[in-house]
Design a protein that fits this description.
With 136 residues, this protein is of the alpha+beta class. The protein has a single domain (6-129), classed as Thiol Ester Dehydrase, Chain A, CATH 3.10.129. It has 2 helices and 5 strands. Strands 1-3-4-5-2 form a 5-stranded antiparallel beta sheet. It is elongated and about 45 Å long.
């Protein structure tokens, strides 16, 4: 991705394909999840066993089918940071170009499962990665 977002390669497995030979639409969310977890671990050194958050919203804009068992690249970047949540944006592509874009909103929870303010240090690190708003 040209904007400097984190990128990771994900293998497309034969089992990801549907009966038409395309990656099943639900698998795109799994690719986003894999990229999100790697991004949080690799860039922000988040111990995922110690951070309690849930995905509250998932958006996927499908642009073209993925038709081959070959690696895809998922770019991840911080779109916005709030008091108790943060939004990540994604671009999924292969050698043929962008196949899908998307966004997830993660909400931080306390021990009781109630939205809770993010740790100040973590919020500052996410804000430092925040990308400029897209004016599309």
């Amino acid at each position: 991705m040209a904007d400097g977002s984190y990128e990771t390669s994900i293998e497309v497995r034969f089992r990801d394909l549907d009966s038409l030979g395309h990656v099943n639409n639900a698998v795109y969310a799994t690719y986003f999840e894999q990229a999100r977890l790697r991004y949080l671990r690799d860039v922000h050194e988040v111990d995922l066993d110690e951070v309690n958050f849930v995905v509250a919203r998932l958006e996927v804009d499908y642009r073209a089918p993925i038709e081959a068992v070959e690696p895809v690249t998922v770019g991840v970047g911080v779109d916005s940071v709030g008091e108790t949540s943060f939004t990540l944006g994604y671009a999924l592509e292969n050698a043929a170009g962008v196949k899908a874009t998307g966004r997830t909103v993660q909400v931080v929870l306390d021990a009781d499962g109630t939205p809770a303010p993010m740790d100040d240090d973590w919020r500052a690190r996410l804000e430092a990665e925040e990308r400029p708003a897209d004016d599309d």
